[in-house]
Amino acid sequence: MAITITQAAADHVTNYLANRGEGEGVRLGVRTTGCSGMAYILEFVDKISADDAIFDSKGVKVVIDPKSLLYLDGTELDYAKEGLNEGFQFNNPNSKSECGCGESFNV
């Protein structure tokens, strides 16, 4: 099982944590919601739980709870700017479909 991030995502997380002045890394997860069934969760981590899986990618700790890891295995986290829009993007090989608004996915 592996989770990776692109250099653009690593740079954004590293800069954010440096400006914030604290934090262990970034947490990825999923929750049940939306029109397709599941939505991604992304938050900065101050404390890592004993049962969390930790992946080090490009010098950033990527933290995932065991339940979410089943849905996110093989995912690459990217950060992209397109025109006036910018944000994190999940490149998840397990995703079978996404809703029209892009907020949720199905496996």
Q: Which whole number gives the mean pLDDT?
A: 85
CATH superfamily: HesB-like domain
| Fraction of helical residues | 10-25%
How would you classify the quaternary structure?
A: single chain
The helix count comes to 2
Structural class based on helices, strands and sheet pairing: alpha/beta
N-to-C span: 17 Å
Can you write the helix and strand succession as a string? Answer: EHEEEEHEEEE
The shape, in one word, is globular
> What is the correct CATH architecture?
Sandwich
Strand content: 35-45%
Stretches where pLDDT is under 50 for at least 5 consecutive residues are none
Determine the CATH topology: Hypothetical Protein Aq_1857, Chain: A
Strand order within the widest sheet?
A: 3-2-5-4
The CATH class label is Mainly Beta
Largest sheet entry: 4 strands, mixed
Number of strands: 9
What count of domains describes the coordinates?
A: 1
User: What is the radius of gyration computed over CA atoms, rounded to a whole number of angstroms?
Assistant: 14 Å
Which keywords apply here?
107 residues; alpha/beta; Hypothetical Protein Aq_1857, Chain: A; four-stranded mixed β-sheet; three-stranded mixed β-sheet; globular
